[in-house]
Amino acid sequence: MFSLRAEGISKRFQYEWVFKKLDLHLNLGESLAITGGNGSGKSTLIKTLTGAIPLTEGKLEITNNGKLIPEDDWFNFVTISAPYLELPEEFTLQELLEFHFKFKRPYRGLEPEKILDKIYLREQRDKQIAQFSSGMKQRVKLGLSIFSDVPMVFLDEPTSNLDKKGIKWYQKMTSEFLNDRIVFVASNDEREYTFCKQTIKLEDYK
Question: What is the pLDDT of residues 133-167, one digit of tens each?
Fold first, then answer.
């Protein structure tokens, strides 16, 4: 069983605590919504859980069948979609998919051709990412995260820049492809985390 366990984790920038004494334990098939007002630290928590930035206090462990995974290897087991992560805009969409899946296996054997259909961008495959609208870029980010064969998926403000049709697409994709993984959603919009079985509010951990 793949699991993430956090015990008393805290993060401080200089003299300000972003969150304190937070405990989490999630196994495959479980999901958590991280809620809170703007600036409450949702993205910071995501970054600490993925190992992108260090904790100030506490213990964070990721295990697979009871075996501890070294922090340097965490990136092999996670994907993240977030507003602050940029796509390489000089790539065409086809080049980006081919590049990404050199490092991650496609989920359920989905070939890049099928992924193009899933994100409704087949006709844009030879266009540079720089020419994409913000909504198209968001679908690409989500597609790379959701359609990678990893046990943990982190989604930070996942429907930002998506219209109503795009939001329905996101909800359909999360329903179909994220049921057997550990999923974290950082959001203020309930439409983005209706599938999450657990919810925390970061203001409760100040």
Answer: 999 999 999 999 999 999 999 999 999 999 999 99
Q: Is 90's pLDDT higher than 90?
A: yes
Q: What distance lies between CA 104 and its chain's CA centroid?
A: 14
pLDDT in tens, 47-58: 999 999 999 999
Residue ranges covered by each domain of the chain: 2-205
Which whole number is the average pLDDT over 165-190?
97
CB 31 within 8 A of CB 196: yes
- Please give the CATH architecture assigned to the domain spanning 2-205: 3-Layer(aba) Sandwich (3.40)
